Amino acid sequence: MVKDVIYSIKSPYRQSMDIIGYTFGSGERSCCVVGALRGNEIQQMAICAQLVDTLKRLDENGCVISGKSIMIIPCANHYSMNIGKRFWTMDNTDINRMFPGYDQGETTQRIADGLFKSIKDYVYGVQMASFYREGVFLPHVKVMDTDCRKRETYDSLADFGLPYGLIRIPHPYDTATLNYNWQVWGCHAYSLFSTYTEHIGKQSTQIAVNAVLRFLIAKGILKWALHGGMHTRILNEESIRNVQTSHAGILKKHVAVGDEVAEGDLLCEIIHPLEGNTIDWIESPTDGTVFFAYNKQLVMEHTDVFNIIPFSDV
């Protein structure tokens, strides 16, 4: 294992922020795994930390294929992580909306530039991603449907051995993300979503770690005996049904992530926050599996509280 500072930015008030990369093996830049780009991505950093610990032992035992190299970057935003703030501490900008970066620009643009220059030439890239909505997911991996994407990237969704693989049509704001720009530079890029963001789940961490190891094995980068995981159901992100609230109030859920529901099943109630009576009953629009569930007790009007994957589209 080689530990390097791949980018450093100075601060007038505290020590420099160093982005650390851990490299295993040597030779071709085969795969790079990036963890926390945001200050609340605790689970994503923990997954990469566990990967570093696991790959260190595997590398010492000669399991990394000769002529291949793997880089793990657990965290690229220590400043925000230290104070528990999701975005950049000074101006509330998002590093994952600044790629490919600009070395003469604002701080987050320079961080994105320094990071991207170090990782853009890898054959495969995996980002431990989080979503802007508060809630929990079933583990899944996602690729963006870009004009420059090769068929291999879609087919490789199954190599992670996770229950779902999603193909996303990018929106304009996606064009400044790490995943999108990795693809523009010719990298096969994937976003891996674990169950949590701010909470470290032991089981969900191990599921994500095993998914990355399984992918490395499938791509001939790592040699190790690991079970093949689950059958992956690949679908377009647009086929997922969003379930929204029509009233604000206290959220009382009746189902959880992973539950199978039938059309018309009660998903949740909205309770009046001052009077205590139920003001809305939300039912499932289709037969399917609960893919995402909002996890805050107070909910606003027109909030996505559930995502359902219809059985007919799986």
Q: Layout of SSEs?
A:
Layout: E1 2-9, E2 17-25, E3 28-36, H1 42-60, E4 68-75, H2 78-83, H3 107-119, E5 124-129, E6 135-137, E7 140-144, H4 151-155, E8 164-168, H5 178-184, E9 188-193, H6 202-218, E10 233-236, E11 241-244, E12 249-253, E13 260-261, E14 266-271, E15 278-283, E16 288-294, E17 298-299, E18 304-310
Parallel strand pairs: 3-4, 3-5, 5-9, 7-8, 8-10
Antiparallel strand pairs: 1-2, 2-4, 6-16, 7-9, 11-18, 12-14, 12-17, 13-16, 14-15, 16-18
Main sheet overview: 9 strands, mixed
Classified by CATH, the class of the largest domain is Alpha Beta
* CATH homologous superfamily label of the largest domain: Zn peptidases
Mean pLDDT: 93
According to CATH, the fold-level topology of the largest domain is: Aminopeptidase
- Shape, per Cα inertia axes: globular
Uncertain ranges: none
Q: How much helix, percentage-wise, in residues? A: 10-25%
The structure class reads: alpha/beta
Order of SSEs: EEEHEHHEEEHEHEHEEEEEEEEE
- Proper CATH architecture of the largest domain: 3-Layer(aba) Sandwich
Number of helices: 6
Strand order of the largest sheet: 1-2-4-3-5-9-7-8-10
Number of domains: 2
List how many beta strands DSSP finds.
18
